[in-house]
Each structure stands twice: as structure tokens, then as C-alpha cells.
Specification:
The structure is a homodimer of 313-residue chains. Chain A has 313 residues and is of the alpha/beta class. Chain A has 2 domains: 195 residues, NAD(P)-binding Rossmann-like Domain (Rossmann fold); 81 residues, UDP-galactose 4-epimerase, domain 1 (Alpha-Beta Complex). In chain A, the strands form 5 sheets. The first copy, chain A, has a 7-stranded parallel beta sheet, with helices on both faces. A two-stranded parallel sheet of chain A has the order 6-15. Chain A has a two-stranded parallel sheet with strand order 8-11. Chain A is globular and about 60 Å long. The N and C termini of chain A lie far apart (51 Å). At the A-B interface, helix 4 and helix 5 of A face helix 4 and helix 5 of B.
Amino acid sequence: MNKEYILVTGAAGFIGSAVANKLIDLGKSVITIDNLSTGDKSNLNKELVFFEGDVFDTNILDQVFKYNIKAILHIAGQSSGEISYDNPIYDLRSNTESTLLLLKYAKNSNCKKFIFASTMSVYGEQETEIVDEKSIPNPISFYSVGKLASESYMKVYSKLGIDCIALRLFNVYGPGQNLKNLRQGMVSIFLAQAFQNSSILIKGSRDRFRDMIYIDDVVEAFIKSIKANVDFRIYNVSTGTKTTVGDVINSINAMFNDNLKIRYEGETPGDIFGIYGDNNLIKSDLVWSPKINFKDGLSNMYNWIIDNKIYDL
Amino acid sequence: MNKEYILVTGAAGFIGSAVANKLIDLGKSVITIDNLSTGDKSNLNKELVFFEGDVFDTNILDQVFKYNIKAILHIAGQSSGEISYDNPIYDLRSNTESTLLLLKYAKNSNCKKFIFASTMSVYGEQETEIVDEKSIPNPISFYSVGKLASESYMKVYSKLGIDCIALRLFNVYGPGQNLKNLRQGMVSIFLAQAFQNSSILIKGSRDRFRDMIYIDDVVEAFIKSIKANVDFRIYNVSTGTKTTVGDVINSINAMFNDNLKIRYEGETPGDIFGIYGDNNLIKSDLVWSPKINFKDGLSNMYNWIIDNKIYDL
């Protein structure tokens, strides 16, 4: 009668679908809201209760909150710094107003747990290469300003009785990533080029670096956050290691027997040179640690592409 | 034909009307948007081109930007931390989405100058009593989160060619302040009580303090910002001195021949104990300095109340 549900927004997307699938494997009942703008209907687990639309649409939220929701994992949203320049207002609604609305509905419905997919890009331009949760945010895109504001709204709501965790996701990659979207995701963009053209064009220096975190490790961070007993926390979800663009390219090229044609040219506007994330806080609070190194993760992703015939050789 | 206008949002309000009046005195053509939600139609200067509605209403913005707008002074918005808890979504739209929209219209219309009424409350809880523009913001209300996000959006737009200044206003008081709104403005709340009841009830300690800045000094900061040659700046608009609640009460009581009945009781939730603002940056950049001390400012306000028969003795 009064069955408990977990609301995972964006379960047709890369990260949202992986989190929803895992929860369903664990025997949980899961509801999602997804507008299918970048997510794909085929990603939706058949066990999901699915509402199609925007998370900032109160008509949809009114429907969803008729269910007994005990936790919200807010993963939906416009997810690219570059794309946020196309329509900053949509970015604000989709990433910030949606958060504020979900928190309001949580409060009115007695849901006490809110977990948010934030981003390493709230750090923006930093003086140091390694950042921890005490580093002062310096957002430089519409996307990152809106994500940071969402975190701050969560802090306000945590004082009104809702336990909130913001997971600052670093560079997520792995099976399930959208290989048709060539505007976001360094690994997916490079892999798509490799499979399609047997060549990779890199905009910017090979010495730039990222902190590459595998999708399964990200899922585990969300799952562990549900059970965490904290009123408000921000966690880096990262490996704590640098992977340079050159490393990424070499690893991909090796999988293609070093037969790819590699070109470096120009740069991406607003691109950061690199930061990586200290992950000691989430390690100690949630007993979480990244399990998959970059080479293994990339190999899994390659096999997933072949097995699912997304591209062939 | 192609007459230049300055857009002052919120010109029916306390600060907006003072700024608009000054610009009109200086011979400028001024347009305003005001939804009259807290402002008063009687405050609207007759020389203004007036659009009634919300600043986040694109139908209104489409009309306004048919004029040749050379500078935007964005002063409209929900202006109370306490009231932001009543409707956080309205606060976000009115203070943050409005800013983002105005910046977008500015960019599309070639307006290169944007000045924003920000607030000292972006500092929130601080370790020190005095704050400068390098102090790390720690907003603790919906209102202050939204104002800080607006500042960050301005920073993004400053890199797209619009010169932006955020004025962090401290505790503004003076003639024109709304004495019927008993939820915001320490001086106006105390004066209203003194005139109405010959008594003042103070919620919280007499040792709390504020940085009281007179309306004419605030107006001058806006006027000087229009001519400033900077791409992005944040300025404290403050006196750099503390005025305690006890000082405010004593000064008011003196004007009533020490005949007021004064009671201290309880506290206001979320109230800060006190910060005051270092104003050296605006002093050196804009050759601005506060001209009116608290006693003179309060006396002017008292006389304005009597002269305008808002209350009588």
C-alpha cells in the first residue's frame, strides 16, 4: 500500500540509467522523470515507473510525489559546460530550478534524503592541480554556476531537515556513454572518432589532464550516499590520479593496434588545462574507493561498443 | 531618433526610485520595469518610461529592448532573506533568472554595461567581523544564494563583452524606505514602531551590529558605476563602520526625547550577529566615499517622515 520508492531523475541518461539499474538489481522500487532530450528511451529499465517531461515541470512533480518517495537522486539536467552557452536559461531551469523544486517537494512530502549529481567544474580555474572539497569554487561557465547554486540551496534545505549530499563527479566514462553526442565526454568523443574514421583529432594540448572515473565507481558513490548519515556533505567522486590527454590517446590507439591517425590542432574555448580530485573525504565517510583503473575501464568500454554493435571494426 | 536610455529595474521601490530620480535629474532618459509587488506606483517618476510586470517576463523584455538601452541597473527583485523562505522559486526567478535574462538581452542588443544590486548577505556566516571582496562568500538563505549566483553569471557575461559591476549593498536606510513593511529594514521597522506605539520591541541582542549606509550614498555608487571602466568588479557599498542595535535604538529614542519604551525579547531566526564592510576597493576604483553619517541620515529620515505625514507625533 504505502510502498517506498526512490526517485532517480534522468534514468534515460548515461549515469541515471546505470544508477537506476543498480537500485533495481538491489530490489528497490524506482521512479524516474526524464525528458528524453539527451537520454534514450532504450536506456529505461522496464521496472521503472517512468514520467516523461522536465523535472522543473510542477505538473509532473505533483504526479510523482503521489508516490511515497524516501530518497531523491537528482541526476537529470543539462550536463555540458560548452552547451550551457547555447541556452543559459534552460541550463538554469534544468539544473538549478529543478533542484530547488525537488527540495521543496521533498520537504512537503517528508522525504529526508537528497543526493545530487554535481560536477568538478564548480572548481573552475584553480591555482593548484589537485582540489579538495575545501578548495574555493570558481565556476567559469553557466553550467558550473548553476550546479554550484544548487549545492548552496541544498545547504539551506539541510538546515530545514533534509539530509543532502552533493557528489562532485569528475570525468565519468564507461559503457553506456552516448557515442553519438560529439560535444561532451572526452573518452566517448575520441572513441567515436576512432571507430568511425580510424583517426582522432584533438583540440588542444596532449599534456592537458583529467581525473577519469569509471561509471560503476560513480554508481557505487550514489548507492553509498543513500545510506550515509550526514546532514550536508560535498564529496569529490574521483580517482585522485591524473590521466593526460596523451595517455587517453595512447591507450585508445593501443586497442586499435596503433593504427589510428592522430592529429593535434587548435583548442576548445573555455577548456581547462586540468585538475584532479582529492577523494579522501568520501573514502573515509562512505568507505568508498574507486575500483576500476583507466586501462581496464577503457577496455570494458571498448568491448561494450563491439558487443552491442554500436560501431564495428 | 536613436535616443539612448538607461534601464533601471524596480524604480517603484526604495533604492530603484532614488536611482531613477537622480538619473532623471542628471538629464538622462530612463526606462523601468516594476511589478509593483513591494514598490509603490507613487514612487514612479513621471518622466519614466514604465513597463508594469516581472523582469523575468520575456514578453516585457521584448518590448523594453526595442528602446536603445545603453546601460542596465538591475535593482528590482525580492529583497529579503527572511521572505525568500516563503517562496524560494519566486526568489530564484526574481533575483537570478531575471539577471540572466537581462544579460542575454544586453548581449543581443549591444548594451555593454550592467550594474547589479547585490547584497552583503552573500557573505553569510564569516569568521571575521569585517569583510572585503576577497572574503569567501558563505550564503545561508535562498535570497543570498540567488544573489551570489547572479554575480557569477555576470562574471561569465563579462567575458562575453559586457562590463559588469555587482554592488554588495550593506544595510541601506533613509528617506523613501517603506515604513509599512515590517519584515525588512532595521531602521524602518524601529522607526515605524516608535511613531505608531511610542515603543520598540527588539528581537535579539542590543550588541548585534550592522553597517548602515545612507540611500544617497548608495545612489552615488550606482551613478559612478555607470562610468567605471572595468570588465568585472564586485564592490562593497558600506561605511566601514559598525553601528550596534543599541546605537540605533539610542539615536531613535533621543529623537523622541527618550520617551520610548524599549524592550528586548527573543531573536529573529537566521539573523547574523554582525559584519561590516571594508570599502577601500570602491573608494579607490570609483572615487566614491560615504558622505552621510548615521546620526545625520537618521535625522533626515525622521524629518522626511514628518514632512510627508507618513506618521505624526
